[in-house]
Amino acid sequence: MDTRVAVISIIVEDNNSIETLNQLLYDARDHIIGRMGIPYRKKGISIISIAIDASQDIISALSGKIGRLKGVSTKTAYSNVITHMEEKHD
């Protein structure tokens, strides 16, 4: 399975979605390289960046699930860094 490095940018406008968002990120913790969150209190939003190294399918699925949350917007930027992993056979 090939993996890619990407950044998922998230803007949270509805605080009621934060618990579900955190659960989605927790579920993807094995692929997440780092996370930065900035509360922008003046505007009442949160800005979150997630650095991730995972397969294209995992990244797309996570971004899609996040984007379907009420009051949450997301965009994903992919690097051209692709790691080719050999599958293990038992």
TrEMBL record:
Gene3D superfamilies: ACT-like. Chain A, domain 2. InterPro entries: Acetolactate_synth/TF_NikR_C, ACT-like_dom_sf, FeFe-hyd_TM1266. It comes from the Bacteria. Transmembrane segments: none annotated. This is Iron-only hydrogenase system regulator.
